[in-house]
Amino acid sequence: MAGGEDSFRALLRAANALLQQRRYHAALAVIKGFRNGAVYGAKIRAPHALVMTFLFKSGSFREKLKSIAQATYAHSRNLAYFVFTYKGLLAAQSRLQGKKIPFHSFLAACIGGWLVFGDNNPINSQIIMYLLSRILFGLSRLAVEKGYIPQPRQDPFPLLAALVWGTVLWLFEYHRDTLQPSLQSSMTYLYEDSEVWHDVSDFLIYNKRTDSK
């Protein structure tokens, strides 16, 4: 028993010593990036999939759990692969040119995005749309900071909120198939299911009646 503990401590000391080596920092950062991508993807997707599945999807309890597990795995895997690819390409470019420049980040992320998120599926679609909204906000702020567009005299957010909600409800009412399925489900629940009821049970307690009354 003591011999096994000594071996474990020696192995742990060797691992810690390796982690302190600066010459291995780039390679180790790629590995930890893979780990962090997997963990973060699972943390983000699991609660979202849990809520959306039990709110809007039909099927048995086992089928719902399987759907949650599959969505969580896909998100976790893709994010892990992307971080691994991005950081690996970033390190390779920096090593080849002897320094890090802004274009390295753009090129590495473009390649990673093409390889990992290029498949048009519900998980990737949600991630890309999430990023797109943040990019538009970020580019708008950057344009103001750089002086490409003037600083607004008033907060433009109320106008943005009005345009976003006006556009999305117009699309839902008249061009629904252009919206993502999960958004369609959410809006159907909010704006269409609220138009239908038969008695108090499906007016206040339930969204829809499950019996044949």
TrEMBL record:
Please give the GO cellular component terms listed in this UniProt entry: peroxisomal membrane
A Pfam match = Tim17
Domain of life, per lineage: Eukaryota
- What's the protein here called? PXMP4 protein
